[in-house]
Amino acid sequence: MADYLPHTDEEVRDMLDFLGLDSLEHLFAHIPAAVRLSGGLDIEPGLSEPDVAAIFAGYGEANAARTNAMTCFAGAGAYDHEVPAVVKALGSRSEFVTAYTPYQPEVAQGVLQAIFEYQTLISRLSGLPIANASLYDGATALVEALNMAGGATTRSRMYVSSGVHPHWRAVARTFAAGTGHEIIEVPLVDGLTQWASVDTSDAAAIVVAYPNYLGVLEDLSDARALAGAASGLFIVAGDPVAAGVLKSAGDWGADVFIGEGQPFGTALAFGGPYLGLFACTMDQVRRLPGRIVGETLDSNGRRSFVTTLRAREQDIRREKATSNVCTNQTLMAVTAAIQLGWLGTSGLRDVATRCAEGAHYLFDAVTAVEGVEAVSSQAFLREFALRLPRRASDVIADMAASGILAGVAASALAPAGDPSLEGIENVLLVAVTEKRTRVELDAYAELLRKAVA
Amino acid sequence: MADYLPHTDEEVRDMLDFLGLDSLEHLFAHIPAAVRLSGGLDIEPGLSEPDVAAIFAGYGEANAARTNAMTCFAGAGAYDHEVPAVVKALGSRSEFVTAYTPYQPEVAQGVLQAIFEYQTLISRLSGLPIANASLYDGATALVEALNMAGGATTRSRMYVSSGVHPHWRAVARTFAAGTGHEIIEVPLVDGLTQWASVDTSDAAAIVVAYPNYLGVLEDLSDARALAGAASGLFIVAGDPVAAGVLKSAGDWGADVFIGEGQPFGTALAFGGPYLGLFACTMDQVRRLPGRIVGETLDSNGRRSFVTTLRAREQDIRREKATSNVCTNQTLMAVTAAIQLGWLGTSGLRDVATRCAEGAHYLFDAVTAVEGVEAVSSQAFLREFALRLPRRASDVIADMAASGILAGVAASALAPAGDPSLEGIENVLLVAVTEKRTRVELDAYAELLRKAVA
Amino acid sequence: MAITGLPGGRAASVPLMGHETEPTMFELSVVGRSAAQLRTTGVPTRPLADMVGAAHVKREPVALADLSERDLVGHFTRLSHRQFSVDLGAYPLGSCTMKYNPKFCDAVAADPALNGVHPGAPSTLTQGWLELLVDLEEKLCAITGMAAATLQPAAGAAGELTGLLLMRAYHASRGEDRRRVIIPDSAHGTNPASVTLGGYEVTTVPSNERGLVDLEALRGALGPDVAGIMLTNPNTVGLFEEEITEIATAVHDAGGLLYYDGANLNAIVGVVRPGDMGFDIVHMNLHKTFATPHGGGGPGAGPVAVSVRLADFLPGPKATRLSDGTYDWVAPAKSIGRVHGWHGNAMVLARALAYIDVHGGDGLTRVAQHAVLNANWLRRRLADTLPAAYDRPCMHEAVLSATALKAATGVRGLDVAKALLDEGFHSPTVYFPLIVDEALMFEPTETESPQTLEALAQAVERIVARADTEADELHHAPHHTPVSRVDEARAARHLIATEDAATR
Amino acid sequence: MAITGLPGGRAASVPLMGHETEPTMFELSVVGRSAAQLRTTGVPTRPLADMVGAAHVKREPVALADLSERDLVGHFTRLSHRQFSVDLGAYPLGSCTMKYNPKFCDAVAADPALNGVHPGAPSTLTQGWLELLVDLEEKLCAITGMAAATLQPAAGAAGELTGLLLMRAYHASRGEDRRRVIIPDSAHGTNPASVTLGGYEVTTVPSNERGLVDLEALRGALGPDVAGIMLTNPNTVGLFEEEITEIATAVHDAGGLLYYDGANLNAIVGVVRPGDMGFDIVHMNLHKTFATPHGGGGPGAGPVAVSVRLADFLPGPKATRLSDGTYDWVAPAKSIGRVHGWHGNAMVLARALAYIDVHGGDGLTRVAQHAVLNANWLRRRLADTLPAAYDRPCMHEAVLSATALKAATGVRGLDVAKALLDEGFHSPTVYFPLIVDEALMFEPTETESPQTLEALAQAVERIVARADTEADELHHAPHHTPVSRVDEARAARHLIATEDAATR
Ligand SMILES: Cc1ncc(COP(=O)(O)O)c(C=O)c1O
Ligand SMILES: Cc1ncc(COP(=O)(O)O)c(C=O)c1O
């Protein structure tokens, strides 16, 4: 059995003696016997590390879709980007991994400065002046943004484009049960949000995705105007890789930018831990959820970093806090700073551009296949939706047999269907990253041709 | 193309300007044109890291014998021991990996102290009072030991048991061409060195392996006595894992202990980098090859570590140095210290004992197979030699097809044959580590039965 | 010669060599550098505007930080040397369970067969992951004494809110509209914050002089509008709520549910199960009890386990073992919906399962025993130096108080905490729980040795001994760290949260 | 209460928190602890003496260090914080080429499909490795302009000795008994040491006032008993031997061979090839030019490439591509035999090949260009502060001299080197090459930026400026490091090379 406890039996005895106790069980003597567990946990005895490694190797082998066995065209908010060895090496340094929240800044400048740099990067990418130190993921960042809008407007109606990822909308609906927010989903037609179909004059928030989950790039001017007219917050859920080349949330006039930061150095990781991005205007800074790192001086006048505006947070403000978040995703934020440092200005631009080039090359090839058509005729960057002549899940299964993960079936994201997307069973979401070669793209098109023939 | 050079084009121009040069080529203007390379190297242009990773994945896949695809019973000086994640994590810390020889002790206490600890561990395992900071591998450690014996005795005849690994003997012969040493190989019978077959009275060194390469444990008393009689050095080439439970070189009266330290945390690694162990009596300390770390004080009286007895070394003593070694295997020595720290007294004992238990279990099972017999009737610890009714290399090939690497063919170690080992083509060396399960051992016996049927 | 910008290869900020500040990555940036290397794909290039339309293209590219790989490595390696961590030394930060996290669990999570799996791949192609999640859920239920669990919540606070929404859904399903949730005054800040986000009002009940819930006050606070109570047991002052059965009965009798804040599970794992104490909903902080590393602030994972009557409400879809032995995603019948964008912090979950498997049932019990042993030993060892807030056996953490020290010398708990840094220890948690004056909350965890505890005690003794004569020096501690005491007030007054807000 | 031993969780030796000494692992040891976890095998246990016979069993078990995993991690993580490295900052250690080593190459070498391969497995089962070795050999030959190579030598010095044995075998095959090998007085210490081990006598030729081999003196030293000459070009004072063609002709005319010490290949890779200069034997330090990390002192790899006439003598067996496209081990016809227990430092070889592949031919040329650019820039930049030993363009390293400084102020080169540590830079190589008085040998390498070089120059300027008034402080530098100047003489006088020799 594994044993990470240092104490020798003799030491345990000595320590118990010091406490005047006979046995370890006596430490729990004040706990009513009725609630104490007798007979131990119903869990098998411990195994050695190599034994457990063998069990986990078994789990791994049963994942046919692992990227080292299958070429990944799945996206829908999680992308198979290059994470270079250097980013893994730096991001896994134990000082970053085994520290906790930097409560003692004098010995936590490493994490604090890295977060400060992360905040700067997210601020620049979002085009907004302030970013927090991370949230759990994109979906929960949306919830925090809605809460911010609720707080800022003291209103409760949230108009959310149906182009926002179905899971994110689902999460927003779940938490609205507590906050009392009303989530009004605004439908898409041809991939564009039909803002005209609703009256948004009482909006606490107008939320739009850029690009949306079908890959489509909408012109955000109308949405921005509606938010202005309602004095609600304009919330843009953006792809942070796209932010390397496309107009930023700030350029479109957003009050809040939220996003999923996984593409910046975090593995696909079966969906987590990911990284919730959050940036906003200075107007909202007192409502910003989670931690913020600020620059200051130490008692010798040296530049230092420290968590700041703490009065917003749950440990101080308790039931009046802007958010309940405590543990966040710092390690992913640090990793994102490292990955963005690796990419640099030109690298992020190249990644975004290559994604787009690959996606457009594939789009042209697959839409030429008989029976396959694009769900939307609008512009897209690196992801697009296809309507197939068969169930998308069946096509995925067929292509997987040849080593290609063809994408994500839209119906898997919204099992109850999506009012905005007719014939959802046949819709396939396809994403292309900078890793995909022309050979792989050609193979994809060929396999799809066979799968729908 | 990969680019690890920081300079922007503009910076290069500025720097050249500062030097009054027009181009980078001008930096080399003083080199005679006749020897300068025109047209560049005949090597393809650089590729990106992921491109090269794909090439290397190809190399890897072509290694059928990799331990993650085949169960390893090969030994012969390189063993498939457990290297836990914690040892890998600590041993790969970049401070240890990307430093060089601790020339500035004030900023190198990390490596220096780790080596000091390593020296202590090797000293204790060898039963000898001093160890150096590492040599290249076991084979070259043998050469250094012979050189020490030559220096200590000013004699040149080295009596080497044929139980010493054939590769080590080959290496000793190679270097003897330079030193003028005469290597006299003393034959084995039933796995035991026939010291009586030679006159060792003029010996500079008596060298014996413990256990020897057939796995056999010899009683070393006679060899020790002969060395004493000749006033030569008694050199024991020992298995450091065995040293956890068996008599140490010092217990047997050795003047010098050498060994291959790979079993202490270093991967099989296709043979390198490994770790040459070297320990000796205090009499020989001024002849000790390579670096030694010693304890001292800093100017404030704090305990510190520093490389010491430097006057032995090539950079100071030049042609009179005891050895030419400069770069050694420090990282493996640090790793060995970590691995031994992980094992502790009881862990090393458990590893050695489990190896022995597995080896004896397998020995009993395979020697019961019709046509298979033990090469030696003597005691062994974790490795033994079998005489098969077929060529060992053919049996290895057959069993490999079922996922077992059956061992090392003796003839592969000594392609020109080994006078000490008749019928070498049919001899198979089999090693069992603590990782091998009973299921694997049973499978081995069953496959061998089929292979020789 | 125009060499501008700061050097990326100078190590004056590494405490090994000096105590200068480390430039930011933006200060180290030189336009035109980049470390990025992208795969050769052979895909034809195409102008961006042709692909997306000019209206979407950013006019000016965002300037990030442009670094060589060497400077990137130098910068972040240096930053790492400016950061304390469990791997460097003891981190007795109360309520945070900063135990040693086995490297083995990280290695498990680094396997591309697990972390290279897309979360949107169909269940048929991710059977290994689904099995892993089901196995973990079963083990967490065995540990908590519960019937079913969701693995989606990404941290403890997310688990709390999920639990409150479950409470809400449960009451709603019975046609009841309950508005209040009771929490003790010692509760962690996430509890009241979660209550508010769950749409409830907080009713605070006071602790009694023994540091426990005042049962009478609790009874008084109960009523038909009470949805439930949130407790952590041991509570945040490190004491076991001995009247837990009475509390449970009272709350259940009033129609309320009991929520267990599992942040303190390390004290009781394998010894007492929340379910056996009468709790209906339990969240666990896997990053505490189950040793998944804290990552400088996260990630964590906060699974929520519930009793049978709440199982149908759990978030979904959930990984489920089907009768044919295969696995699929299944939504509980009355699921409150998703609480995470995908399936939760999967790699954290995998680490926790590896930790559970290595320990086994027996090992987990020993974890709690040794954690409690260490805390009690330290409490007793320091009894004459810094007395415990409550003079009785504690569980896995010891809440001491510097009230007397402050009165006698002016040296505050914060000063003691900062001076400990100079002694080679991370500080304990200070000024939490709020109900204890000058609180210093030590949680040594089970992975620290008696020798380390003794050294920690001696360090505290040394500091306290200095308080009489060296109060001023202690007010300014720490003195050996790369930066000295940091001006927190200035940071808030004059907010600089990005490089661009700085006036450099 | 008997808590003995030192605390494994105290971090007072981490420069982040303090400057105490770190206990040794033996001081942290407590009998009875162990971190080891071995696989469950199901193999029946058996008493050791039954298996090996009582005569072989050790009476008293060797005491190693008994640590918990937590204390093991704490100890070695703390030690790592007491260690400078390239990843922390510039390391301009002349002759050592401490460039930034790409993490990518380490990742390649971590692949179990390469590093999990037993070296004794038959070639049929290790085709990937053999192909890799053949590919590397071909590329190293292309880089050096040679015909064939051995990859066995484990470091530069091993390569030297291998080269000398090749020289010996070559002459012997021609029935010639030559006894002397010429080396310049500036040569690295491994050269003369290797010459002795190769069974030759050293004849030293002086350098001329330009820092180059004195051609006339060389001609004078040549004779029929000369086996060859060992040169490094650029030589150890960082200068290119411009008369290399004349040297080669003279040596060849005398029947000798030219050996190239490739430790300085970084200066000329892709610019000049040793083969084109007339060398017959070349060793390469892969851990220098090809950026395999130095590991705190090793491992390295020192392949030796030779011209056609020496190819048959190379060590073997060698990985060889057969006519059918498969690979096997083949011994060269007149092989001198093995020089390594297996096939050389294979994982170092793999890293070097990855480095070569990522750079390509074009990239390698730029490596040399930028290395030489940086060294010359630094030399010129410091011309008024610390003059170069030879006032002419250098190659990849600049040998400066503190002779004048010492004369004027008493501050020696060593003091400058130590003071640089306090400035956040590793010291240059001091007092090598021996022919330069008060030598400070800076090798910035190509991976440091101009900004770093400028900062390094400013640091040297600051130190030199302080020499007049603060000589004493400089004599005692460094002041910020975890230990101050270390007493080397004491260590040698009073040898304590193991814990057991210490009187603690
Ligand atoms: C008692 C208690 N409850 C809840 C939490 C919240 O957990 P998390 O930080 O994972 O959100 C914490 C975390 O510190 C805690 O200590
Ligand atoms: C010029 C020169 N030659 C030879 C060597 C020896 O190489 P190694 O240390 O790899 O044995 C060195 C190493 O420092 C060197 O600088």
Characterize this entry briefly.
Chain A is α/β, with parallel strands linked by helices and 453 residues long. Chain A is built from 13 helices and 17 strands.
In words, what does this structure look like?
The complex is a heterotetramer, with 2 copies of chain A (453 residues) and 2 copies of chain C (504 residues). Chain A has 453 residues and is α/β, with parallel strands linked by helices. Helix content of chain A is 36%, strand content 15%. Chain A has 13 helices and 17 strands. Chain A has helices spanning 9-19, 49-61, 85-91, 94-97, 109-126, 138-153, 166-179, 221-230, 314-317, 330-367, 392-400, 410-413, 438-452, and strands at 71-72, 130-131, 157-161, 182-186, 188-189, 192-193, 203-210, 233-238, 256-260, 276-280, 293-297, 303-307, 373-374, 383-387, 404-405, 408-409, 427-431. Chain A has a 7-stranded mixed beta sheet, with helices on both faces. In chain A, strands 13-14-17-16 form a 4-stranded antiparallel beta sheet. In chain A, 68% of the residues are buried. Chain C is built from 18 helices and 12 strands. Chain C folds into 3 domains: 1-38 and 61-82, no CATH class; 104-358, Aspartate Aminotransferase, domain 2 (3-Layer(aba) Sandwich), CATH 3.40.640.10; 367-503, Aspartate Aminotransferase, domain 1 (Alpha-Beta Complex), CATH 3.90.1150. In chain C, β11 (429-430) and β12 (439-442) form a beta hairpin. The radius of gyration of chain C is 26 Å and the shape is globular. The model of chain C has no long low-confidence stretch (mean pLDDT 96). By secondary structure, chain C is α/β, with parallel strands linked by helices. Chains in contact: A-B, A-C, A-D, B-C, B-D, C-D. The interface between A and C is large, with 218 and 209 residues. The structure holds pyridoxal-5'-phosphate (2 copies). Residues 95-96, 155-157, 188, 190, 232, 236, 261, 263-264, 285, 300, 302 of chain D line the site of one pyridoxal-5'-phosphate.
